[in-house]
């Protein structure tokens, strides 16, 4: 009994029974007991029969040994239940129960045969036995005899009861009322228990299939159930965790106490909670998890316990820590370089991306004045153009360049630098760049100039030079040395005259110094040769020489480059650290893209299928909200991936002829609906000359307009949004298309404009901002505009509105009366093909290779209303086997699967088709890996089409149609090539 009213009802029924006579009560109790026991026994027979049938079918379908174990456990229980029913039931039903037992024996024989076939790997034959007519006949006999036994037994018992109850009608009525009340209460309790058992079984079934660790506790947060993934992660056995609190088993002493306290506080209130915690396994291994805990309530809203789902994120946390350390080291290296060198970084086009403080000091420019400008803005004009051309050629060949450069400061004065320019190859986040390490030699150059003018070839020149100047004979013996030799090599001129400086070279550099001297004697010149010298104080100094033979003498200069080489080594190490951090970030982004798209596919796919069913108005609104949120999340993910590809230098445009008006109108139509929902005016105006086709990336033009128009509608509360499109032909035959979006929204001031195009920035950046968004839209728009060679113009006033204009060079396409195939004929043919496929879709058979249960169910729900026959394989190897044994019209292949991935399975199918001369099977890659390189990998493996997750009913059905058309086109192309070869 679940409540006090039920207890009172039962008490009343017992009092009614006590009112009956003692002899009638005894007789009635015996007969009633037999009826109840007989009913329970037949009910147990039916329940156990369902358990055995389900276990046999599930084992034949999945080959999971736990179903075989469940079958073996319940078989003796069923036989015992039949024996019990025979002993309890009247004599008239024993014959029926004997037939039940005979039918049960035959059913068990057939089911055990199916288990044996599955054990031999013959699942198909096992399923045939369980779906055979013989099996169905035995099942029918079994059911009919059970029914007869129940009816016959109930009739006999009821007859006996009526004989005993004759003359005691009032007592029988009272007794009947009591038993009716008892039976109703028993039925209600049994129904509640059955619901709880079914809910628990469903939870256990799905939790066992889950890859993440799952735990269920009672209200005291003591574990009452845990799946295998939890046991594998923690290292404990099931017996060790049952009855224990998770915090007692796995919480690490090093976990954040504040976060643990917040988590416990939420659980004490019976609320959901989530956190990222440091745990410790039984073996002592520390690992990080994302923890999501949900409270569980019964029908009376009483707390039953908690359910926790864990996700191990140790690799992600460690990767983030390494990236943070690398960034900290990089900042430290940069600070060290700023202290010793003049540093600048430029892109492949010579536009300055970075300068340190010393560069600003020597040039007189502020950093903001230099960033984005060309190096030409600081060139002095002293050097010939060929000088810089040689530098560019050297860098383009992948070599470092070294030389002296005269630059012009902001005040017009000249300054000299000793420059070493190092090329940096393109990375995943940026294009080719080059780093310049400069040393201020203005004073030295001024001194050299003054000395040359004042003294000519006077010996005073040797005395005042800051560098080591030397004259040697052809044997390398010193004839004349400047005073700088004391500072650089550590020995006086008098000590070295008549000797060779090689006597003081580090032993490890002796051999390659000899090689360099021989080269000098052969070629007459030696440039930038570095050797290490042992200073008298024990220091090792690196000295760079430049030498030239004139007549019988060797003229040479040298300088101490010890600090410069150390700085260059630090710079190289810093670059390697940065590249490692970039690789870690790109790997993290690719993994998270896949992991986000996989569950997002389940959300959008299921909602898409649900929206096509009969729903109430309230349900329709909820489905629309979920669908809108899913689409917003997908758009956000696409923006982040676009930014990543832009930073990696892998973002490319795909120009082709497109209809400008149709592209603009399609985008404006969507934005117009959003404007109307907010009560805004919305106008679209085309100027003259905007008809026809233009050459460009129409998809990116649409993306630019969509972002600008979306922002205009979002930031406008009243008034209107106006879009205008004009085209102006130039004298050189090109055409400039201007797209303007004007609104009467919140606007912004000049200070906000300076940071508006930075990534993740918005006009309203406060924590209480009224508008959502990531702040990526305008940054992407400006980048796309720059890549197209266009201009991006903005004017705005706070509280009045904004005007965004994009000027794009889009050449007109001259069609000569014939439009490109992509615009007319081919498209029409494709549309006809789509209609034909839709008409005949009921005859399609589809093979789906997908290991994720949610994705399997999503695609099944989308295809089910279209009568498409769907077969599911758990991995690429299983899909390959099914494809070889049956015919399928389309294969939908996931990219990442265990045992054999989708790319490998597709390549294997194409190899088999080629070797056997088979027709090409349409294959589409359905994957959360949606980056350009992933799509390229799909087509390289042999796929006909790539469908990106998350899928919607529209995208999946159109993707199947496109796959069939692309496969047919490939077949025709291959056939044409074969005919030409013949």
Spell out the blueprint of helices and strands:
Elements: H1 4-19, H2 22-62, H3 65-88, H4 91-119, H5 123-130, H6 133-165, H7 169-209, E1 214-217, E2 223-226, H8 228-234, H9 238-241, H10 246-250, H11 257-268, E3 273-280, E4 286-297, E5 303-312, H12 314-340, E6 342-347, E7 352-355, H13 357-363, H14 367-370, H15 385-396, E8 401-408, E9 414-424, E10 433-440, H16 442-455, H17 460-464, E11 468-473, E12 478-481, H18 484-488, H19 493-496, H20 510-523, E13 525-534, E14 540-550, E15 553-560, H21 562-611, H22 617-647, E16 656-659, H23 660-677, E17 681-686, E18 693-696, H24 698-714, E19 720-729, E20 735-743, H25 750-756, H26 777-787, E21 791-797, E22 801-809, H27 825-839, E23 845-849, H28 853-863, E24 869-873, H29 876-885, E25 890-893, H30 902-916, E26 923-927, H31 932-941, E27 945-948, H32 953-981
Parallel strand pairs: 17-19, 23-24, 23-25, 25-26, 26-27
Antiparallel strand pairs: 1-2, 1-5, 3-4, 4-5, 6-7, 6-10, 8-9, 9-10, 11-12, 11-15, 13-14, 14-15, 16-18, 19-20, 20-22, 21-22
List the main descriptive attributes of the protein structure presented here.
alpha+beta; five-stranded antiparallel beta sheet; 32 helices; elongated
User: Mean of the pLDDT scores?
Assistant: 77
> So what's the overall shape?
elongated
Beta-strand percentage?
15-25%
Q: Ranges with pLDDT <50 over ≥5 residues? A: 759-774, 817-841
Largest sheet, strands/sense/barrel: 5 strands, antiparallel
The neighbouring-strand order within the major sheet is 2-1-5-4-3
Helix content estimate: 40-55%
Task: Find the structural class using helix and strand composition.
Answer: alpha+beta
């Amino acid at each position: 009994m679940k409540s006090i009213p039920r207890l009172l009802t039962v008490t009343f029924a017992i009092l009614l029974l006590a009112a009956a006579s003692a002899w009638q009560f005894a007789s009635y109790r015996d007969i009633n007991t037999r009826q109840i026991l007989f009913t329970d026994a037949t009910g147990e027979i039916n329940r156990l029969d369902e358990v055995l049938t389900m276990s046999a079918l599930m084992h034949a379908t999945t080959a999971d040994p736990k179903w075989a174990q469940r079958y073996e456990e319940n078989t003796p229980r069923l036989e015992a239940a039949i024996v019990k029913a025979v002993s309890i039931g009247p004599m008239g039903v024993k014959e029926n129960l004997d037939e039940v037992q005979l039918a049960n024996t035959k059913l068990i024989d057939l089911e055990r045969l199916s288990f044996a076939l599955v054990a031999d790997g013959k699942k198909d034959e096992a399923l045939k036995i369980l779906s055979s007519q013989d099996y169905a006949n035995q099942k029918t006999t079994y059911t009919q005899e059970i029914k007869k036994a129940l009816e016959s037994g109930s009739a006999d018992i009821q007859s006996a009861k009526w004989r005993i109850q004759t003359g005691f009608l009032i007592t029988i009525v009272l007794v009947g009322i009591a038993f009716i009340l008892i039976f109703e209460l028993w039925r209600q309790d049994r129904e509640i228990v059955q619901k709880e058992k079914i809910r628990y079984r469903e939870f256990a079934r799905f939790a066992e299939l889950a890859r993440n660790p799952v735990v269920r506790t009672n209200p005291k947060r003591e574990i009452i159930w845990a799946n295998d993934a939890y046991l594998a992660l923690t290292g404990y056995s099931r017996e060790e965790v049952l009855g224990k609190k998770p915090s007692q088993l796995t919480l690490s002493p090093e976990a954040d106490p504040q976060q643990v306290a917040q988590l416990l506080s939420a659980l004490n209130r019976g609320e959901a909670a989530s956190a990222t915690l440091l745990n410790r396994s039984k073996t002592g291994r520390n690992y990080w998890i994302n923890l999501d805990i949900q409270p569980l309530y019964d029908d009376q809203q009483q707390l039953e316990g908690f359910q926790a789902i864990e996700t191990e994120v140790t690799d992600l946390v460690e990767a983030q820590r390494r990236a943070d350390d690398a960034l900290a080291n990089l900042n430290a290296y940069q600070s060290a370089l700023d202290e010793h060198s003049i540093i600048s970084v430029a892109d492949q086009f010579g536009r300055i991306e970075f300068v340190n403080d010393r560069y600003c000091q020597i040039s007189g420019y502020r950093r903001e004045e230099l960033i984005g400008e060309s190096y030409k803005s600081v060139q002095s004009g002293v050097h010939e153009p060929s000088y810089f051309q040689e530098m560019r050629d050297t860098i383009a060949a992948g070599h470092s360049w070294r030389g002296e450069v005269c630059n012009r400061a902001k005040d017009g004065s000249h300054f000299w630098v000793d420059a070493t320019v190092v090329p940096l190859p393109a990375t995943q986040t940026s294009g080719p760049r080059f780093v310049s390490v400069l040393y201020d030699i203005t004073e030295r150059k001024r001194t050299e100039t003054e000395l040359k003018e004042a003294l000519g070839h006077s010996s005073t020149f040797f005395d005042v030079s800051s560098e080591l100047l030397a004259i040697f004979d052809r044997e390398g013996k010193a004839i004349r040395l400047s005073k700088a030799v004391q500072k650089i090599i550590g020995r006086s001129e008098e000590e070295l005259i008549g000797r060779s400086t090689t006597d003081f070279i580090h032993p490890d550099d002796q051999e390659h110094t000899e090689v360099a001297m021989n080269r000098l004697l052969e070629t007459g010149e030696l440039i930038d040769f570095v050797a290490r010298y042992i200073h008298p104080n024990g220091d090792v100094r690196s000295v760079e020489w430049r030498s030239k033979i004139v007549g019988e003498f060797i003229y040479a200069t040298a300088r101490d480059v010890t600090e410069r080489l150390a700085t260059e080594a630090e710079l190289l190490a810093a670059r390697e650290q940065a590249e490692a951090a970039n690789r870690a970030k790109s790997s993290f982004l690719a993994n998270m893209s896949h992991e986000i798209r996989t569950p997002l596919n389940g959300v959008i796919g299921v909602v898409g299928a649900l929206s096509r069913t009969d729903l109430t108005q309230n349900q329709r609104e909820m489905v629309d909200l979920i669908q809108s949120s899913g689409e917003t999340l997908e758009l956000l993910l696409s923006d982040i991936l676009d930014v990543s590809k832009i930073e990696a230098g892998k973002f490319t445009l795909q120009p082709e002829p497109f209809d400008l008006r149709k592209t603009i109108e399609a985008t404006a139509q969507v934005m117009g609906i959003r404007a109307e929902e907010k009560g805004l005016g919305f106008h679209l105006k085309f100027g003259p000359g905007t008809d026809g086709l233009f050459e460009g990336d129409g998809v990116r033009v649409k993306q630019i307009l969509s972002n600008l128009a979306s922002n205009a509608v979002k930031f406008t509360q009243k008034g209107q949004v106006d879009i205008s499109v004009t085209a102006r032909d130039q004298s050189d035959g090109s055409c400039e298309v201007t797209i303007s979006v004007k609104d009467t929204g919140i606007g912004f001031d000049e200070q906000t404009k300076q940071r508006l195009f930075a990534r993740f920035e918005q006009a309203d950046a406060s924590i209480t901002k009224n508008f959502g968004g990531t702040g990526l839209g305008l940054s992407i728009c400006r980048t796309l505009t720059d890549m197209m060679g266009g201009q991006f113009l903005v004017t705005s006033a706070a509280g009045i509105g904004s005007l965004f204009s994009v000027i794009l060079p889009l050449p007109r396409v001259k069609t000569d009366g014939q439009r490109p195939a992509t615009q007319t004929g081919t498209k029409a043919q494709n549309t006809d093909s789509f209609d034909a496929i839709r008409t005949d879709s009921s005859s399609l058979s589809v093979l789906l290779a997908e290991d994720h249960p949610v994705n399997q169910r999503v695609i099944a729900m989308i295809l089910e209303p279209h009568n498409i026959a769907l077969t599911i394989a758990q991995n690429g190897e299983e899909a390959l086997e099914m494809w070889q044994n049956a015919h399928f019209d389309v294969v939908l292949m996931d990219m990442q699967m265990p045992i054999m991935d989708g790319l490998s399975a597709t390549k294997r199918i194409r190899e088999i088709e080629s070797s056997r001369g088979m027709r090409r099977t349409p294959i589409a890659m359905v994957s959360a890996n949606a980056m350009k390189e992933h799509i390229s990998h799909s087509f390289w493996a042999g796929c006909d089409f790539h469908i990106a997750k998350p899928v919607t009913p529209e995208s999946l059905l159109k993707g199947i149609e496109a796959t069939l058309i692309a496969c047919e086109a490939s077949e025709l192309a291959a056939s044409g090539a074969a005919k030409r070869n013949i």
